[in-house]
Amino acid sequence: MWLEGLVAWSWSLDGLRDCIATGIQSVRDCDSTAVVTVVCLLVMFVWYCYHVGREQPRPHVSVNSLLQGVDANGLQNGSMYCQSPECMRCMHHDGLNQKLYHNLQEYAKRYSWSGMGRIHKGIRDQGRYLSSQPSIQKPEVFFLPDLPTTPYFSRDAQKHDVELLERNFQAILCEFETLYKAFSNCSLPQGWKVNSTPSGEWFTFDFVNQGVCVPRNCRKCPRTYRLLGSLRTCIGNNVFGNACISVLSPGTVITEHYGPTNIRIRCHLGLKTPNGCELVVGGEPQCWAEGRCLLFDDSFLHTAFHEGSAEDGPRAVFMVDLWHPNVAAAERQALDFIFAPGR
After folding, report:
1. N or C, which end of the chain is more exposed by having fewer CB within 10 Å?
2. 139 and 149 Cβ atoms separated by less than 8 Å
């Protein structure tokens, strides 16, 4: 009977306290069964504490290097090579594939293998996919096979979210202009990041950075933040998801680079788009337009530049990462799990 009671017992501190108190009272009453119960509980409690104490806390892995290329000096577009053995980009492909496959297995045990065929195929043959991709498209971390490939996407690819962003253009622009006024008081106001470029200046103001919300920045732009929550296809729960305001000063060139994956579409809503500004993806140039969204696959080799004069002012866009329309709902859930921040 005491074994059945032990199995059914709730592992709560209140339960432990009450059980021990009862056991002590029973010892006083010379109940031999209770004595055995108390001893067993104490032994199991000591074992549990020892087991928990041995576990090392999981470090939060920096994923800056997942999202930007790295040059010979360890810097590219403002991101430092993290040098962590846990970082997905720093790993050799074999180590990365093992890590991803372990995460996929863990997900399938908790949920289901149903709909995981393409992700399983991608992880199994990831090294071959990345090495055999044409130089025009080389996602640096994860390639999901059998997705339609094109440098730019039409607005209909994520029609609901595109229309929602464009309807709220004035609200986003107003909050950006309030933020940007702070540059008149100091060179780099709080909340902004400066990114390294061959020439000029490139600033970003993050709302979601590599799947992690930035609360202080979101509070400064409440309407923009609420809008993010209304988007149906925004990537917000894995390391491939970002949302920010991106600003290029006149004379700025961003080094050509590849994004980390082909599972997303990067969306730019033009806020300030002076003449002389271009985005080039896969060798195809496009220009931004104020109040309009431009959708592209950043796993293609891409660059951006602002060749306007100082009088033209900065180029500013609101950038948000959306799911590729051909990634199924079950795959999105699994990829959120596999690539969760810090995993």
Report:
1. N
2. no
